[in-house]
């Protein structure tokens, strides 16, 4: 779940040369961070003493909880300003992989420690635990050194705090960073403390600050009074507390005339909540500015999408396998090749595909432009030639007019524009108008009680949202939404069979043992109309999917999946809860597909 090095470099350089006005106030925010990091360091020192003194598991566990609560108070800044270190403070207990360099790094931090001490702490793990705590202490020193030299201006503070609210929504209350201990709810409340404390240092007299203090106080109280992870009502917490806080933060920013931070991000800087209809910018994933989405490009791309002349025999178009009425899938377990044999994998939906930075089940292409060429030129799928297609278009007057309108700066259609136009059409397929979306924007009547229960299960007990992140419900990791994840879940070869799927997935392109059977985490949006499911189309219904996860995936079914990233313990969902989960997933269907 890493963030790239250039993200850290961009933010650090921006901070070093950011506006220095009101430096005394900025120093106060920085000083608070340094003080809290010192407190965290002291707690880790005490943690080490408890372990060295062979204290009881109860004492060690309580110290762990106390330490992470203190970390939650600085997490907003650590995750935003120093993401590379943050990954090894409270990131997943999974290997960190640098696929470009074909190497991996073992995980460190709170989640690794959590696995060592809960549900049982064994004294033979003492040396490993001390080692983890020493590494953690070194990371604290690195954080302090970095914060001491960077300038933290108002615009970065506001952006970091807003990102942290989104982090609480999409990660904090889902159990993402407390998968075993499930201490997420009180920790979520702790994460919000920074909002009034930091904004008061920007302008303690701001008229919106008093309202923010009340909202944050009520949110913290709600977490304290409803701390049970499985019973926590996330729909209420988001709609009645976090979304209002998010909106009020934007009001504060406007009142203080604080500019938006300029950065390349899928989340638009103007949004009030994570659930705004136009919250995501598809241009954040394009190759360069000339590839940016426009309506005219999309119109051209749609014509190309349905044009069978793109295939070698003029008998197959993109729409032959991606049917609009099925949310751009085909309803088949796997489609047929041009020679009549079965293709290896299920046809995925194209809806919301533009909000991922990896395409195909095995993630072999990073952008939609390369994805379209891959399919068109694949001998089993369309077996077309981009050179031949380009030549045909140069002789077609209707196409030439559409290209001229879409690309007015070029004299005649160019080959790259064919790919870009098709990709632009795919980028238009993000409606964000499901009943779930309406509910999150204030229409309380759009979901019934069963569906709300399903939403709370999806984001809680069932752990779906720890991989299918809100609100995209795919593997694009919040709150930056800049990197798409894969998972190893142990998909069977047949629904009722006893064998594992032989497809090695991402391992075919990156020969790392952790990637055997790894596939991109697809979106759950429009899942009600995109059956069958999984990379091999093995499951026909959402009920079968829920049952598979409820049993712990492949390992839970008894398969040998040593590198499974999905927790293999049973979810213990009741029949009623399974039905509620399915009901919720059906609320994620766009209007045009309902």
Q: How many beta-strand runs?
A: 4
Mean pLDDT: 94
Binned, the helix content reads: 40-55%
What's the CATH H-level superfamily name of the largest domain?
A: M75 peptidase, HXXE motif
Q: Are there runs of 5+ residues with pLDDT below 50, and where? A: 1-23
Rg over C-alpha atoms, rounded to the nearest angstrom: 25 Å
Per CATH, which architecture of the largest domain?
Up-down Bundle
The largest sheet has its strands arranged as: 1-2
Q: Do you know the CATH topology of the largest domain? A: A middle domain of Talin 1
**Sheet of most strands:** 2 strands, antiparallel
Question: How many structural domains can be distinguished in the coordinates?
Answer: 3
Q: Give the ordered list of helices and strands.
A: HHHHEEHHHHHHHHHHHHHHEEHHH
The N- and C-terminal alpha carbons lie at a distance of: 33 Å
What does this structure look like?
There is one protein chain. The protein is 47% helix and 2% strand. The longest helix has 30 residues. The protein has three domains: 267 residues, Up-down Bundle (A middle domain of Talin 1); 145 residues, Orthogonal Bundle (Cytochrome Bc1 Complex, Chain D, domain 2); 159 residues, Orthogonal Bundle (Cytochrome Bc1 Complex, Chain D, domain 2), CATH 1.10.760.10. The protein has a two-stranded antiparallel sheet with strand order 1-2. The two termini are 33 Å apart. The chain contains 21 helices and four strands.
